[in-house]
Design goal:
78 residues; single chain
């Protein structure tokens, strides 16, 4: 039972992470603009959740937010 319970718990955790990520994305996109502080918040959330999630979307978004924050063009638009 322990292994099955862990598997189900992990699936529940992943589903909660995806639900939370959807909520964050809706909030970030609500005004039609995404600023640096919002990208930094998303990157921080993804960094916190990347280690405990097997969801490829979380890992891909984490990598992409890191690229955005390193991009010099982003800094010139502020």
């Amino acid at each position: 039972m322990g292994k099955d319970f862990d598997l189900l718990g992990g699936e529940r955790m992943a589903a909660c992470q995806i639900d939370e990520l959807i909520g964050i994305a809706r909030g970030l996109a609500a005004d039609g603009l995404i600023n640096q502080a919002e990208v930094e918040f998303l990157q921080s959330w993804l960094a916190t959740n990347a280690d405990i999630s097997d969801q490829p979307i979380i890992r891909a978004l984490y990598e992409r937010t890191n690229e955005i924050l390193r991009d010099a063009r982003w800094h010139r638009r502020r």
